[in-house]
Amino acid sequence: MLATVAEDDVIIEHPNRDKRGANATRVFVVVLLLASAAVLAIATVGGWSKIQGAKPVQVAYILVYVLLAFYIARWRSGLLPVAASFAIILLIFCAISGPEWFSRDKAGFADPLLDESIVGALTILLVPLQLLLIIVAARGFSQKWSVEVERRLDGRPAYVAQSR
């Protein structure tokens, strides 16, 4: 059981974090965030010369996803809705811009670093990744990782109400 010792020999336990489902969800969210950041990074680098105006947004998304993965790996359940909201926004951008990469495969368009079809496929691949991230992050939030239970080392109740 995960526990930390607070003042006066009080142990703070998080009982919902000990469940296998919660651990699996946490790992799955972290893997999805890191996979999304990796696919987005490859697509960004591959299409860097032809991306117009979205370069800072894409770099920020990569950094935010890595940061979210770091903190969620440390049981920060409050960031799960933040990860889901970022995933919704990225899903919308990818669903709109993904097919446009395939339409660049004609004469007269300059070629990006990676082939247009590869960048388009990577962008389309982000759509199901983001859908899965939204679902798993919502599941993790419903598991209530932040619930705390306090108890003393000597077995007495942590706080006793005093009568007057």
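(the above was protein one; protein two follows)
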Amino acid sequence: MRHTNSVFHDILKLVPWAAFDRLVDEYGTDEAARRFTTRNQFLVLVFAQLGGASSLREVEAVMASHQARLYHVGAKAPKRSTFADANRNRDPRVFSKLFEHRLAASPRGLRRKMGEVVRLIDSTSLRLAGAGAQWARFSSAVFGAKAHVLYDPDLGRPVYHAVTAANVNDITAAKPMPIDPGATYVFDLGYYDFSWWAQLDGAGCRLVTRFKANTPLREAKAMPLAEGSDVLSDHIGFLPARQGNKRKNPMREAVGEIAVETETGKRLRILTNDLDAPAQEIAGLYKRRWQIELFFRVMKQTLRITKFVGRSENAVRIQIAVALIVHLRLRMLQKITKDGPGFLELVRLVRANLMHRKDPTRLRKPPPPPARLSPTATELGHDMNRTAVAQGRPAAH
């Protein structure tokens, strides 16, 4: 009878363990480890994400109940205090660098040229409470963190992330983000900084964002609209010489302003430095910004980035990095699965079958019936006795 691994076991085969071990050596996270190594910690975190565990006690209890099968993947149920200490003290760069490694190794088939690459930038707030959350104090009684993400809507995945306290402005977290020369960057009002826009413009990037209501467009010149376009207006002009009262605006080149109306009747002013693209194309690019909002919603619905098993800065950084790694693994599994479930359905199926011995690419289908084994001598003897009794003969002993 063919052996079948658990779903958890097969998903772990997608992890680049050689790269993981190199990162552990580079950052020395196992130097003080006695039994609970960085790999043990990672396995527990992945199990918690896939299984939907939301507390240290739940992680410990559920993993202990599956210890026989976890043994085959090198995982073990952690002691709560040991797991909490590892999340609080271990270098989170092991996990964030592993996420970056997987991005570098992913296929680039959709990227025919850099001018077609789109980057969506946004952040999502994460509520924290309890011991260890003091680093993320937002007010006297509120604690929170932010996950800042650079998202590729064509590949359906994040390509960069950072974690800060909730009181850090979005633009402050955006400035250290890597810039891909020639790419298109789409973002909202949280990234309203003329000097940063000039930096993107200087790298040959196309930017699409919102005008604030009180920002005038100087020397505006109206442009003709394409027939049948739902764009309200299209103008070319110049930004103010200063942003606020003190900061001089380094962005001297002309920009475009496109006005559109949302489904709710709200009028939006969209800014771009691309004066050649049709106004309808720019409006469509800004509309794609909602794809990162959908990504955040999916992450919060399917993976544990709203309930943390540790609330220290280190623990939150580690858990968000692992959640993004798990997201990549599930997207990879979705591509190779044979019955094509949607992403949310796949997550539910993986969660329900995590420790079952099933092919993770066929979770929708029932397992095949067990092969009939050859009868043993004892079973043959019982059959002969039943036959003898039925024929009125004495049974053999």
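Reviewer note on protein two: The chain has a mean pLDDT of 85.
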